[in-house]
Each structure stands twice: as structure tokens, then as C-alpha cells.
Write a structure and sequence with these properties.
The chain is of the alpha/beta class. The chain has helices spanning 28-40, 54-65, 101-111, 132-141, 175-185, 203-210, 245-257, 276-283, 329-337, 358-368, 402-414, 434-441, and strands at 10-13, 19-21, 42-48, 69-74, 77-83, 95-96, 117-121, 144-148, 152-158, 167-170, 191-196, 215-220, 223-229, 238-240, 262-269, 287-296, 299-307, 316-317, 340-346, 373-376, 379-385, 395-396, 419-421, 444-447. The strands form 6 sheets. Strands 22-23-1-24 form a 4-stranded mixed beta sheet. Strands 2-15-17-16 form a 4-stranded mixed beta sheet. Strand 16 (287-296) and strand 17 (299-307) form a beta hairpin. The structure holds shikimate-3-phosphate. Shikimate-3-phosphate binds at residues 29, 102, 174-176, 179, 201, 326-327, 350, 354. Shikimate-3-phosphate (S3P) binds next to helix 5.
């Protein structure tokens, strides 16, 4: 697959005990939304702690193409001078969202109710992912789409000149689809209603309220019912982006499986719609504690402390927890390899349409490193080999997927033999400081 320049293999060798503080970058989901909502507010939104990974930088460029002024002050501090709801200009070039499903789907939503025409593309991974899940509800607002077979990018959307608000029951558990519909609803007159049967990450709802939109959330027999009143004037915000729990997962899991480790991961967002991995690890017997719990920027935050945990046991992960840890199953499957007994992960069909088919990608790589994996369409299981039982020694394909690449780097830290991925480049999409951060804790990573 192409998309991130010449592939650069990366190898993880058995690590020293991992120790110290792991300051992981800002939350990817909140970073995208800060830029997009900032662009739709009137005036200057100030953002600190923005994730400066490729995915988010592509969204920043897109907001500039829509007419917002986006200023990088350095050190994760950014300003967005927004053009207001309904104020987007028509970009004069194709919007390239790189590897980012969140970027492209949210941006499609926010432009779909403006009278502009936009063509979207991405890398080989993104251009293979399903977009009909977003363009179907956007059509209900009056937007028109022409894309490739199977609803794939590149794709052109003609925004609705006279949008009508919609009521939409999201058919798959997806925060991206929910958010695209809400962002489209911003420029439709009247009330847009989104119903989700399973709760997914709720950053859009929280941030829309923060920006001054009228939005309510009610639990009903149908599920979570979110009602947004269209055409508000969004007020610019000062946003401190919490550190990303999905990135924290890597040093946390690495510490749990690497003998002698004791790592503190400070200031991690623990929004309940995101924190499922940490509860699952605790259920497996991990020595993982939440220290100094507090609230920052409207999100619950704590410092995570992870220590080497040689007595972890495989469990059946509750399927109802899937949405709150959907991005963490790859690295969980690595931890499961070092536990004793079987870990069963069910209700996870969505993993098949992420940056890669994550069940397939992990199953192949785990097997290449001596781990037994079974899989079905919406489940997979890993047979744990115990704390020092994983042979390693395999080379895995990362399939242009940052989380696959990082998961196998974590595996190599505690496996008997080094673990290699064919391409470490995708890591920069979400965790550009992965290599220095992990090396600083005691990891031994090499490139080439
Ligand atoms: C995200 C939602 C999830 C997640 C992705 C980020 C978001 O995708 O996998 O990494 O920021 O809304 P889905 O909405 O497809 O589940």
C-alpha cells in the first residue's frame, strides 16, 4: 500500500524495565473537533495541547481551505479564526484527508449543508473505507454525492443550498457518523435529531454545548436521543485538549507486560465513552491505578500508573464495552498474548472497517509471532502464553495503520525475540513522538 512515502521497517527489541513519566500527545478526536468547531464559530478559538499528528494537520489545512484562518503558535498552541456557521467558502482544491476517517467524515458533515462543492480524497487506506455510512444521512439534508463504487473516495459532495433538518437513527455504533450528522445539522434550520442505540464517544455533544449550541441528550427506549437546534452563532472557546487515552494505551500496556516496569502517564482523558480499555485491563488483573482524578476542560482526567503485571488472566471482554475501547483492541490483543488463558473479544465488527481490517491485521501479526488466534466476522480470541511465553521473532504488515504498527512495537518489548513491522511511518498520524517517548522509558526500537 502507498501513502506515507517509502516504507521504513521498525523493530522492537526486548526492553529494559520501562520507567518514568510518559507525556502522550493530545486527544485526536478532540483535536479534530476543536479545529472544525473553531472554524464554525465567530472569532478566535484558542487551543492548547493540540495533537500535531498528520491526521489533525490535514484537518487544519482543510479548515483553511474553507476560509478559516488557522495559526500555529508553536508548542501545541493554535488559534482558529472562524467564519461562523454557514460561512464556509468553497475550497479551490481537492481536500486530502490523508489517513483520517474522522477528519474526512466530520468535514463532510460540516460542509454538507452549505452551498459549496468539495472533492475529498485520502491515502490508499482511507480511499478503501466505506463513506456511504456518512453520505446516506447527508443526502437526507439535501446534499448530493458522487463517489467511486461502494461509496469510496475520491468523492465529490455538493452541499445542500436549502437544507432540511433530519431525524436519523445511526445504524452502526459510530461517533464519526453521529458527529457528521450533528455538524450538518448546525446549518439546517430547525431541530436535527440523532439517535444512537449504543453510546459512542460524546466529544461532539460536549463541545457543541461548550461552543454555545442548543443541544440536549436524553436516554429513551430507542437509545440516546440527541437534539440539536440549527443555525446557532457558535461562540469561540479556549480549549485545553486532554492527553489521548488511545495513545496512553501504548505505554500503559507496554509497562504491564515488560518485567520491572513502573510508568506514570499523566493527565489522561477518562471520558467514560473512551476509557473501556483501562477497566478491561483491571478486570484481567493488571496493576493499573488512577491517581489524582480531576476535571479539565469539561472532561474527567487522571494520572494512570501502570506496573509490570505478571499475573494477568484472559477474560471475555463485555461486548457492551466495545464502543468505549474500539481503538484499543489491537494493543489489548498484545496484552492478552502475555496473560494466561483465553481472551475473547466479541461484538467488534467495526474493527474490520478501521484504518485496516484490524482483526485480520492483528491475527496475521500475532500468528507470525507464535500466538494462537481464532476469528469470526465480529469476534476474535487470543490464547495467552503467559508473562514470558511469547516467542516473537516475526515480521508483521502494518497495512498503513498506526495502531497496528504501535501494537507490534509494544509486543517486541516483552517477547523472547524482536518483533518487526514492515512500515513504521503510519505512527505519525496519531502519535508523532512515539519513538522518543517509548525509548525514553526504556524501549529499544530500531529503524530500517
Ligand atoms: C472517532 C470515532 C471512532 C474511532 C476513531 C475516532 C471519532 O470511529 O475509531 O479513531 O473521533 O469520532 P467510528 O466512529 O468509525 O467508530
Amino acid at each position: 500500500m502507498s501513502g506515507h512515502g517509502t516504507p521504513i521497517p521498525m523493530t522492537s527489541h526486548r526492553a529494559e524495565p520501562l520507567t518514568g513519566r510518559a507525556k502522550v500527545p493530545g486527544d485526536k478526536s478532540i483535536s479534530h473537533r476543536s479545529l472544525i468547531l473553531g472554524a464554525m464559530a465567530v472569532g478566535e478559538t484558542k487551543i492548547s495541547g493540540l495533537l500535531e499528528g498528520d491526521d489533525v494537520l490535514d484537518t487544519a489545512k482543510a479548515m483553511q481551505a474553507f476560509g478559516a484562518e488557522v495559526v500555529n503558535h508553536g508548542g501545541g498552541n493554535w488559534s482558529v479564526f472562524g467564519v461562523g456557521v454557514g460561512g464556509f467558502a468553497e475550497p479551490d482544491h481537492v481536500i486530502d484527508c490523508g489517513n483520517s476517517g474522522t477528519g474526512v467524515r466530520l468535514i463532510m458533515g460540516c460542509m454538507a449543508t452549505s452551498p459549496i462543492t468539495v472533492t475529498f480524497t485520502g491515502d490508499a487506506s482511507l480511499n478503501g473505507r466505506p463513506m456511504a455510512r456518512v453520505t446516506d444521512p447527508l443526502a437526507l439534508f439535501g446534499a448530493k454525492t458522487v463517489g467511486r463504487k461502494g461509496g469510496r473516495l475520491p468523492m465529490t459532495i455538493v452541499g445542500a443550498a436549502e437544507p432540511t433538518p433530519v431525524r436519523y437513527v445511526v445504524p452502526v455504533p459510530s461517533a464519526q457518523v453521529k458527529s457528521a450528522v450533528l455538524l450538518a445539522g448546525l446549518n439546517a434550520p430547525g431541530k436535527t435529531v440523532v439517535v444512537e442505540k449504543e453510546a459512542t464517544r460524546d466529544h461532539s455533544e460536549r463541545m457543541l454545548a461548550g461552543f454555545g449550541a442548543e443541544i440536549t441528550v436524553e436516554d429513551s427506549d430507542e437509545g440516546r436521543v440527541i437534539t440539536l437546534t440549527g443555525q446557532p452563532e457558535l461562540k469561540p472557546q479556549v480549549i485545553a485538549v486532554p492527553r489521548d487515552p488511545s495513545s496512553a494505551a501504548f505505554p500503559v500496556c507496554a509497562a504491564l507486560i515488560t518485567p520491572g516496569s513502573d510508568v506514570l502517564v499523566p493527565g489522561i482523558g477518562l471520558n467514560p465513552t473512551r476509557a473501556g480499555l483501562f477497566y478491561t485491563l483491571q478486570d484481567m488483573g493488571a496493576d493499573l491505578t488512577f491517581e489524582n482524578p480531576r476535571e479539565e476542560g469539561g472532561e474527567p482526567v487522571a494520572d494512570l500508573r501502570a506496573k509490570y503485571s505478571p499475573n494477568m488472566k484472559g477474560i471475555a471482554v463485555p461486548p457492551e464495552r466495545a464502543a468505549s475501547m474500539i481503538d484499543e483492541y489491537p494493543v489489548l490483543s498484545v496484552v492478552a498474548s502475555f496473560a494466561s488463558g483465553k481472551t475473547m473479544m466479541a461484538g467488534v465488527k467495526e474493527l474490520r472497517v478501521k484504518e485496516s481490517d484490524r482483526i485480520d491485521a492483528m491475527a496475521r501479526g500475532l500468528r507470525a509471532n507464535g500466538v494462537t488466534v481464532a476469528e469470526g466476522e465480529d469476534w476474535w480470541s487470543v490464547d495467552g502464553l503467559g508473562p514470558d511465553g511469547v516467542p516473537g521473532g516475526g515480521t508483521c504488515e502494518s497495512f498503513l495503520d498506526h495502531r497496528i504498527a504501535m501494537s507490534f512495537m509494544v509486543m517486541g518489548m516483552a517477547a523472547q525475540n524482536p518483533v518487526t513491522v514492515d512500515d513504521g511511518n503510519p505512527i505519525t498520524t496519531s502519535f508523532p513522538i512515539f519513538e522518543p517517548l517509548m525509548t525514553g522509558l526504556g524501549a529499544k526500537l530500531s529503524k530500517g
